[in-house]
């Protein structure tokens, strides 16, 4: 009887899980190198896709139309059957595995090509349990199969392994002493794989697309292994899922071009296999013979495994994914923990969120549901605009509703309930009446980064603004990002009532997170006729109106870090830079990743409170970005970013309000 390891997913378990890559960065070197190569190749080949935006729009429309379209799926099944395929719709992964086992029958060897769906349904393990030898025929997958490693990219599963690692893996598996030479290793792998392919009578592949109109499956690859696997004498079993559905071949080809470009930087793969029927002939007296040169049978297994449920619950977009892996290249979490973030072949934030439906809540927690900083860099990278921040927050809400959120976050929520701030602070706040603006200080500036509060107040006084300080409560951002909308809604109402009492119609914020919460998450705020601005936007107005005077000062070279809440989430990029440019003697230098492409500091989404070392590792990378452009100071407009960057930075980190105060007349 197989032994099952029951994992209890605690904060400690997850901390331990990511400690490996956080402490030993060796493994990330090859991964980052591979990602850089992909990015460079994408940039080189951009010229081949002058109409890339049109292509993306077209793909979005095709996905919108196809995903969850039951009629289209029925049409596809009908057309595949008409073309001679045997089709099986598997509601669950067990149904899929049982069916495939029956189809394999007495065969003892199966060759297989890359397929995330087969990983999802644990096909490999289940076949081996029955004594069937399964050989992966994609070189990267074969290396992973021979090792204890997890894949690191959907199309380059072994991209995190160096030539030395691979030489060790092959040498150990075959009792050889192989040199770490990439070509020698590749040829060695090829010979081993070929031997197996020649012997096997059943081949299993995935499918990148199933096309309803034609009843055709499409599979792309560079190695040529798919063609060999699909041509096994007895059977070709295609294992795919309902989200691989396209209306027709044209739409699928558009997807494949984009997928190839984003996955590898190339414009096309070496092979595009279109399978729209079975190998047959009736050349002799019209007598039909199946399996002339190809397999005698082609079987299509279409797996649901929780996807329909996800579509119904409003997570359809999550399954628009085409598996290009582009989101991994820029994800700040993936950059520092690699494939510890993700589920089997579904890697990173999107994969972790999808695993909630494919495998369940505990699996998603184990794969890093709470690692996501909600920075939304993935939305910018993704050709289908899939941003994981929204999904993380919604799924965390479910976790909280069954009281399974982690103790640290529970404590924060308890603090918010008791003291109306996440730190449990009970000290009295300074209050002030004023009718021009309300300065909403936010919990960080009130209790932790007090210099930001002090400098903002001093600037308002210098500009002779009649400002109000209210008995504010937490804006609700922390509750929202960690999964408690209900508390956030109550806090929002309390804050809005207190703001309205002042009679001021403008509210300014030091914290990018508070501003985003007020603008995006407060219900019906538009009706309140209030204007919400970040303090940097307000100070820019005051500088332009001459109410705040700026004088010269020390000459410094500084860089601006865009907080995710203010940048990607609110698209405010220019005003803080305009303020900095008003200051004489300051040279503003942009980091290689800035504005929309800015690298997250790592503090958001409750990550800093839950996984401090993970947050610091991300901050370290951001500080490296600043050092790379020889900045002497980092300036930001969010107290969370300031704190997290300051925790690891060897150069000064300031809030913009502090900088303005320093240089104000
Ligand atoms: S929101 Fe940010 S941290 Fe979360 S998965 Fe996307 S890129 Fe990664
Ligand atoms: S979420 Fe988007 S970027 Fe990431 S793998 Fe899927 S399609 Fe590609």
Characterise this structure.
- There is one protein chain.
- The protein is of the alpha/beta class and 665 residues long.
- It folds into three domains: 38-309, 3-Layer(aba) Sandwich (Rossmann fold), CATH 3.40.50.10420; 418-543, Rossmann fold, CATH 3.40.50.1860; 550-662, Rossmann fold (3-Layer(aba) Sandwich).
- The protein has 31 helices and 22 strands.
- It has a six-stranded parallel sheet with strand order 1-12-7-4-2-3, sandwiched between helices. The protein has a four-stranded mixed sheet with strand order 8-5-6-9. Strands 16-15-17-18 form a four-stranded parallel sheet, sandwiched between helices.
- The chain is elongated.
- The site of one iron/sulfur cluster (SF4) has 14 residues, from helix 14.
- In the CATH hierarchy, what is the superfamily of the largest domain? NagB/RpiA/CoA transferase-like
The number of E-state strands comes to 22
Number of domains: 3
Question: How can the largest sheet be summarized?
Answer: 6 strands, parallel
**In CATH terms, what is the fold-level topology of the largest domain?**
Rossmann fold
Q: Structural class of the secondary elements?
A: alpha/beta
Write the layout of secondary structure elements.
Elements: H1 11-23, H2 26-45, H3 52-66, H4 70-82, E1 86-90, H5 93-104, E2 109-112, H6 116-120, H7 123-129, E3 133-136, H8 139-146, H9 163-174, H10 182-199, E4 202-205, E5 209-211, E6 216-221, H11 225-230, E7 235-241, E8 245-246, H12 249-264, E9 271-275, E10 280-281, E11 289-290, E12 297-303, H13 307-312, H14 326-330, H15 332-337, E13 342-343, E14 346-347, H16 348-358, H17 361-367, H18 377-381, H19 388-401, H20 407-419, E15 437-440, H21 442-447, H22 450-462, E16 467-468, H23 477-481, H24 485-502, E17 506-509, H25 512-521, E18 531-534, H26 535-544, E19 556-561, H27 574-581, E20 586-588, H28 607-610, H29 612-628, E21 633-636, H30 639-646, E22 652-655, H31 656-662
Parallel strand pairs: 1-12, 2-3, 2-4, 4-7, 5-8, 7-12, 15-16, 15-17, 17-18, 19-20, 19-21, 21-22
Antiparallel strand pairs: 5-6, 6-9, 10-11, 13-14
Helix pairs in contact: 2-12, 3-12, 16-17, 16-19, 22-31, 26-27
Bound molecules: iron/sulfur cluster (2 copies).
């Amino acid at each position: 009887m197989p032994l099952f390891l029951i994992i209890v997913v605690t904060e400690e378990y997850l901390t331990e899980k990511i400690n490996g890559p956080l402490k030993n960065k060796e493994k990330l070197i090859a991964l980052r190198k591979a990602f850089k190569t992909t990015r460079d190749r994408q940039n080189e080949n951009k010229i081949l896709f002058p109409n890339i935006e049109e292509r993306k729009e077209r793909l979005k429309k095709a996905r919108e139309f196809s995903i969850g379209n039951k009629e289209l799926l029925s049409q596809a099944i009908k057309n595949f059957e008409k073309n001679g395929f045997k089709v099986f719709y598997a509601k669950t992964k067990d149904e899929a595995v049982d069916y495939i086992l029956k189809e394999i029958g007495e065969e003892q060897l199966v060759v297989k090509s890359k397929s995330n769906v087969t990983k999802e349904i644990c096909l490999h393990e289940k076949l081996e349990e029955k004594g069937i030898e399964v050989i992966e025929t994609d070189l990267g997958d074969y290396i992973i199969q021979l090792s204890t490693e997890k894949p690191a990219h959907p199309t380059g599963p072994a991209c995190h392994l160096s030539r030395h690692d691979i030489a060790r893996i092959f040498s150990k598996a075959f009792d050889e002493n192989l040199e770490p030479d990439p070509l020698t290793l590749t040829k060695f792998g090829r010979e081993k794989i070929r031997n197996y392919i020649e012997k096997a009578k059943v081949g299993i592949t995935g499918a990148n697309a199933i096309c309803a109109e034609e009843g055709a499956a499409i599979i792309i690859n560079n190695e040529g292994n798919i063609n060999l696997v699909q041509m096994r004498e007895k059977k070709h079993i295609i294992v795919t899922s309902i989200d691989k559905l396209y209306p027709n071949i044209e739409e699928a080809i558009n997807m494949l071009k984009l997928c190839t470009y984003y996955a590898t930087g190339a414009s096309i793969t070496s092979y595009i296999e279109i399978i729209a029927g079975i190998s047959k002939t009736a050349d002799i007296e019209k007598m039909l013979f199946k399996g002339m040169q190809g397999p005698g049978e082609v079987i299509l297994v279409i797996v649901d495994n929780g996807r329909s449920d996800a579509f119904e619950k409003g997570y359809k977009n999550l399954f628009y994914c085409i598996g290009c892996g582009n989101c991994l290249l820029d994800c700040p979490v993936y950059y520092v923990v690699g494939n510890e973030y993700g589920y089997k072949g579904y890697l990173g934030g999107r994969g972790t969120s999808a695993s909630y439906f494919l495998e369940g809540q505990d699996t998603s927690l184990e794969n890093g549901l709470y690692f996501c900083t909600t920075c939304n860099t993935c939305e910018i990278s993704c050709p289908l605009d899939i941003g994981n921040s929204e999904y993380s927050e919604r799924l965390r809400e479910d976790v909280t509703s069954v009281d399974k959120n982690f103790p640290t976050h529970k404590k924060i929520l308890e603090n918010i309930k008791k003291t109306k701030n996440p730190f449990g602070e009970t000290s009295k706040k300074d209050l002030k009446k004023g009718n021009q603006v309300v300065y909403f200080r936010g919990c960080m500036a009130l209790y932790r980064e007090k210099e930001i509060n002090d400098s903002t107040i001093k600037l308002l006084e210098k500009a002779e603004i009649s400002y109000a300080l209210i008995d504010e409560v937490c804006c609700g951002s922390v509750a929202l990002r960690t999964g408690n909308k209900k508390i956030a809604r109550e806090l929002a109402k309390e804050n809005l009532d207190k703001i309205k009492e002042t009679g001021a119609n403008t509210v300014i914020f030091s914290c990018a997170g508070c501003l985003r919460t007020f603008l995006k998450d407060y219900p019906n705020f538009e009706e309140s006729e209030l204007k919400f601005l970040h303090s940097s936007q307000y100070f820019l107005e005051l500088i332009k109106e001459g109410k705040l005077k700026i004088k010269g000062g020390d000459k410094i070279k500084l860089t601006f870090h865009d907080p995710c809440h203010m940048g990607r989430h609110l698209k405010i990029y220019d005003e803080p830079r305009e303020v900095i440019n008003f200051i004489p003697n300051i040279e503003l230098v942009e980091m290689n990743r800035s504005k929309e492409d800015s690298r997250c500091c790592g503090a958001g989404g409750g990550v800093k409170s839950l996984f401090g070392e993970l947050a610091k590792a991300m901050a370290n990378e951001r500080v490296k970005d600043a050092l790379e452009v020889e900045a002497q100071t980092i300036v930001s407009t969010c107290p969370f970013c300031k704190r997290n960057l300051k925790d690891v930075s060897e150069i000064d980190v300031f809030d913009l309000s502090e900088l303005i105060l320093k240089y104000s007349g």
